[in-house]
Amino acid sequence: MRYDIITAGAEDFAAAIPDLALVLAACVANGAAVGFLPPLDLDSAAAFWHGQEGAVRTGEKHILLAVTEAGRLIGTVTLALAPQVNGTHRAEIAKMLVHPDARRQGVAASLLKRAEEVARSKGRRLLVLDTREGDDAERLYARLGWQSCGTIPDYALNGDGTSHTTHVMYRQLPPPPTGLTIEPAQPDTPDAIPLINALSADLAARFGSDGRGGLAGWDAVADRSLFALARLDGVAVGCGAVRPFDGEVAEIKRMYAVPGSAGVGASILAFLEAGARHLGYRRLLLETRWANERAVAFYRRHGYRITANYGPYANRPESACLSKIL
Ligand SMILES: CC(C)(COP(=O)(O)OP(=O)(O)OC[C@H]1O[C@@H](n2cnc3c(N)ncnc32)[C@H](O)[C@@H]1OP(=O)(O)O)[C@@H](O)C(=O)NCCC(=O)NCCS
């Protein structure tokens, strides 16, 4: 079974609520201990997810979706960033759900791995959760490196009026690549130029167009734009830019991470999104090629949604346009 894991932006999330309700209701009917008692009807399940919309919009919660090629939602997990000022390094894993007929194929493990990547990109290094003692989930977490800090008896109720013990677990994420810095820079900074050239050569070789126009006229819009340069131990390894498109909408341009530099692209994207928010933008747009499957998957993983081809790409069927509400 092939499936994608998507970080749901606000729009994706709202559209997915009926499917999320189906998965939640199916898991509860199947005996899951995830905050509800059976029977859970679809309206109540949908109401729960509607209640999450505000936190998804503000970025306090990141909800990941596992979606098959045929578009069926088969699993989800929620990463809730701790809102406390002394908890900005911490997040909680919740509503880890895989539809009963899609289990034991690694879906939960993939969702959790992606949740860890999102957590790290948001500066979180400690994850916590609780799970019913003896459930499949407890084994899953242990296998993925979670530590147990013990149990709490009589923690939650079962459908038959008895109660169960919960297992409290945590996971300290390995530190991000040391020496990775991402800073605003000018696109003509000497160590940015070879990166931009490498990106252009790569795009030209693979898709016949080098995208060099992406930074044209930069000086005229520099005060509403941001160019980010990533350096690993002082060596430039990636870049990306945000520039104005229309009103509160900005466009991402020239995203590049040198091959083999795991995690650099995600870090640049997070930096650009924070910078765009700071500049007053509310939405980001970008164009890539459908043939650039890795790029399309990368942006979808980070909450970008396919949108109608805009501006210069309107009549270009080879162009894939994506957008994200900030
Ligand atoms: C817990 C839960 C999320 C696991 O989902 P899942 O997608 O089945 O999880 P995975 O496939 O990653 O792992 C489950 C098992 O399948 C095995 N597996 C993974 N890929 C496999 C494959 N291709 N072939 C055979 N087995 C496979 C794993 O090794 C694991 O085995 P183990 O439990 O014996 O160690 C799911 O059972 C669920 O939704 N439960 C109800 C909700 C719940 O309790 N959530 C947790 C709240 S804290």
UniProtKB/TrEMBL annotation:
This is N-acetyltransferase domain-containing protein. It comes from Niveispirillum lacus. Signal peptide: none annotated. It holds the Pfam family Acetyltransf_1. GO terms for molecular function: acyltransferase activity, transferring groups other than amino-acyl groups. Transmembrane segments: none annotated. It comes from the Bacteria. Keywords: Acyltransferase, Transferase. Residues 1-174, 180-326 form the N-acetyltransferase domain.
